[in-house]
Amino acid sequence: MLSLKPFILKKPKNLDELVSSLKQASPKTRIMAGGTDLLPNLKHGLYDVDEIISLKKLRELKKIEVREDRIELFSLLTLNEISCNQQIEKRANAIFQASRQVASPQIRNVATIGGNICLDTRCLYFNQSEFWRSALGFCLKKDGCSCHVIKTGKRCVAAASNDVATALLAHDAEISILSPFGAKSLKLEDFYTNNGEKNNVLTEDQMLLSTSFLSLKNTLSGFFKLRHRNSIDFSMLSVAVRFSLDALDRLQGGRLVINALVAKPKVIDLSEYEGLHKTVMIEKVAEAAKQKCHPQTNICDDPSWRKQMVSYATKMAFNNAFL
Amino acid sequence: MSKVGHREKKIDALDKVIGRVRYTDDIKLPGMVFAKLVRSPHAHAKILKVDKESILGLEGVLDVLTGQDLAVKYGIIPWTKDEYPLALDKARYVGDAVAAVIAESEFLAHEASLKLKITYEVLPAILTIEQAKNALVKIHEHAKVGNITKKVELSFGEVDKNLSQSFINLRKNFSFHGTTHAAIEPHAAIGDFSPSGFLTVYSSTQVPHYLHRTLAEVLEYPSHLIRVVQPAVGGAFGGKSEPFDLEFVVAKASMRLKRPVKLLYTREEVFLAHRGRHPMNIDMEMGVAKDGTILAIKSLIDIDGGAYASFGMITAFYAGQLLTGPVGMKSYSFRATRYYTNKPACGPKRGHGSVQPRFAFEILCDMAASKLGIDPIEFRKINALKENSTTINGQQVGSLGLAETLDRAAKSANWHERRNRMPKDRGLGVASSMYISGTNYPIYPNDMPQSSTNIRIDRSGLVHILSGISDIGQGTNSILAQLTAHELGISTSRIRVKSGDSDLCPVDLGAYSSRVTLMAGHATKEALTKARYQIAQACAQYFSHHDHWQKILEQKISHEELDFAHERVFYKKNPEVAISFTEAVVIAESAYGSLSFCGDYRTIAKGGDYRGGTIGASPAYSCTTHIADVSVNRDTGQICIHKIYAAHDCGKAINPDLVEGQIEGSTYMGAAEVALENFVIDDDGQRKGLLITPSLLDYRLPTSLDTPDIEALIVEHPDPSGPYGAKEAGEGPLHSSIPAVANAIFHAVGIRLFDLPFSPSKVLAALKGQRC
């Protein structure tokens, strides 16, 4: 059986205690919400950790605030709670659909929205046991100095694989970050970087408090996850789209997000397709998306097939918006 | 009160459901310490030095074992022993166990194992069959020719002549990928050496007897001082059917430390231990007459065996020997060659050796039927072996309900109505297969019984069955209980079954080759016949000499006039003349002393009269037909298996629930191998023979959402060689599920796929080729 190395476990009971813990955090501190990603990674020896701050007791972070044109999801909401919320279903279809397709029912009962947004990048050559990685010769993301995906690569291209984040990006979400210096807001798009070793801007003394997004009438959104199994699998591709149509079904703007490619989700603004009828527009967007995406071998599947699937997945995301 | 054919709950069902059952890892012994294996990071390397001193002073580290500490070769097949518990001179795949660290805790053993210094000299690695054929490097020095484990070449009838005279001649290259068992319970073992010199090894094995023998051999320790205990096993499917490194390590370490030692594989180690389905390249040619008669089959098979022989000698035989029914042929030849490669060793996975050629054969049957314009079900009937016949390679087949399995599956699938009006891109495909119910010969030659049962009946009315069988989840303990309940006319609540304990149980050879119900069933039935006789004798005496009963009977009666049912022993002509089963036992024990009965099963020697003709010979053969209902997504290339109708001739279903469970499980496992499960080893040399799918995330078992509806259809053609007519059900119903899907894909979208797994990219490429 895989063993966990010993660590100090802190369980703050309120935000004040949390802030106090964050003040003392070091590069060897990790924050744990549901733990569904962190614990397997710890067992694989992927992080050097001596302290974990568990958010389990922070009940105030387990809520949804629904306002007239905006919805705010606090970090400790489980994906299952989101996927059972009627307001989300009605007003943010892509987020609703994405939250129902992460992993399995058991994992969604524990995994949180905060954890999904902050999910570490994944790679065939990283998410393995210490024995496996040592036999390979390690990699840029952990303990090594070469990339096995792009042989001459100097920057890690591990893939962001967080489905709900894909949908949140399509909804132009913002996030709120808590630190000992207070809370601040940031566009989710600016939260992610293109460095697979660590693909977000959080520092060790910061944590994600909540995410919010506009929920306007006449906005459509949809999500599609390409995978081999209908449960459990991480995405081979995840695509989310949010857009508006006028009375004649012509595009009035929106954005498309494609994830599970490299470290930073790909965001495509749809303004250049404004005015096109939806049938023409979807075809053009799907083809353009295919040209812009270059799947790698960082995921255990055939990248050329995944490339072929970009346009299909894009069309399916649009289709799902009309469901 | 017939219990045979009755749907009975498994005797351990409730305990399993509520978590009372104890698996090997649940056992915690006082003072127990833990072992961790140190594995080679190289696919092929000389082991120059293992520096034990590098970790012996670390916190909690108690001992380090290396190949030198267990330097006796072993192997499940006596003629191909080629393994050491810990690699002695060379590591032969990435993951080959080279040393074992024993420490006070699993964590400390793991930490120390990462620090053990081992010096290797890396050798060129052989990662494909082609490389194995051409390499100057040898993986095993003892291999007589190159890297060949075993080559089998057999021919029956005038194959080349028949091929040349065929109306249709089809020849295709097929490839079958590697897959593995993925039993949910990882391998685990505990060694417990007592101060008085007794060694107990607990293991999640499916072959306690072979483990017992091999432990004695490798440890060079008397077998009467070794006890092997098999706690509950959480699935095996062939993946635990030979001894593994961990069992020797915990035994040896416990003997050295005089403390119990436990070792539990990680999931990755389960994958590395492997012994899964062999990848095969199959060049198969079929010649067919105008009327649909199969005139000849010629099969050339290259088998990728991995680093060790395992059951590979048998695999090479089974790849050819098990193809000659239930659809027969007028002539047949095969050449099967198993090669060593520097990869985790392959072995027996459910449907050992015969699933791969069956895939090829059944697709060729479909192609031939299509070319001739014959319905594929009719094509199989034209070539069906007759019951009580001999196959072209000399195997003697008893009952064989092929035609009925075809009809039952066709009726359930509404084949004749639906096949010509399926929705777009959706199709129906059919395939059939045959499988053994145990092997006529044991793995190591001997004249002793293959299976024995002891039955002890207590004056409380408790019946205790002792048998060396391995219940690995398939329910064989429940089958023995059910047979006993049937023969003694009692409920299973009176029956306790103790199995898988070498100290307590007489030998049974293990759970492999679908042998247990037939062989242990016979042994148990023999013991029960003796029990019935003795109890009836005593009761007949009692009824004949007791005033109360004589007033009613007015005559003496014999034991033959008594029967057992409804918890009673009674006079058949007047069932009111009866005593309870417990009273009957007390009477019998009073008359004869404690009640204990033995039964044995020995196979009758039969098979082809030629060298190798005994391999594939079985007391009875099951057969199966699958019809698959499949659709293909032309945009993604993904296949959706909507439903599989699986009709299986099991002879007699002693417990229909268990038979249906086996049909469903087998069909599922086969369907899983079509597109999802794939045991991928990197073979381009860049990543050194690493297993690319070492987790249940990357090795994709179908989830419940991916599992097709399965309709299990029991067909009963009782076989005189089986107890109550029973034949196997555990492995046969896997085989034809795979080609049935392949044939359904052809029916759905008109593409023939010969190269498993049918990944979306292959399907898309074939569809694209179709358009060109």
| Largest sheet: number of strands, sense, barrel closure of chain A | 5 strands, antiparallel
Can you tell me the overall shape of chain B?
Answer: globular
Order of helices and strands of chain A: EHEHEEEHHHHHHHEEHEEEEEHH
Radius of gyration of chain B: 27 Å
Question: In DSSP terms, counting alpha (H) and pi (I) runs of 4 or more, how many helices of chain B?
Answer: 21
The largest sheet of chain B has its strands arranged as: 3-5-1-12-9-10-11
What does the average pLDDT of chain B come to? Answer: 97
Poorly predicted sequence stretches spanning 5 or more consecutive residues of chain B: none
Q: Share of helix among residues of chain A? A: 25-40%
Please tell me what the overall shape of chain A is: globular
Tally of alpha and pi helices of chain A: 12
Percentage of residues in DSSP E strands of chain A: 15-25%
- Classify the oligomer: heterodimer
Strand order of the largest sheet of chain A: 4-5-8-6-7
- Classify the beta-strand content of chain B into a percent band: 15-25%
Structural write-up:
The complex is a heterodimer of chains A (323) and B (772). Chain A is α+β, with helices and mostly antiparallel strands and 323 residues long. Chain A is built from 12 helices and 12 strands. In chain A, strands 4-5-8-6-7 form a 5-stranded antiparallel β-sheet. In chain A, strands 9-10-11-12 form a 4-stranded antiparallel β-sheet, sandwiched between helices. Chain A has a 3-stranded parallel β-sheet with strand order 1-3-2, covered by helices on one side. In chain A, helix 5 packs antiparallel against helix 9 (163-170) and helix 11 (278-292) runs antiparallel to helix 12 (303-321). Chain A is globular and about 60 Å long. The mean pLDDT of chain A is 97. By secondary structure, chain B is of the alpha+beta class. Helix content of chain B is 29%, strand content 24%. Chain B contains 21 helices and 28 strands. In chain B, the strands form 7 sheets. In chain B, strands 3-5-1-12-9-10-11 form a 7-stranded mixed β-sheet, sandwiched between helices. In chain B, strands 7-15-14-13-8 form a 5-stranded mixed β-sheet. In chain B, strands 18-26-27-28 form a 4-stranded mixed β-sheet, sandwiched between helices. In chain B, helix 6 packs across helix 7 and helix 10 (355-372) packs parallel to helix 20. The A-B interface holds A 1-5, 104, 124, 127-132, 134-136, 148, 226, 228-234, 300, 302, 304-305, 308-309, 312 and B 25, 39, 41-42, 94-95, 106-107, 110-111, 114, 186, 264, 266, 268, 635-638, 675-676, 680, 687-688, 690-695, 697-698, 700, 702-706, 759-761, 764.
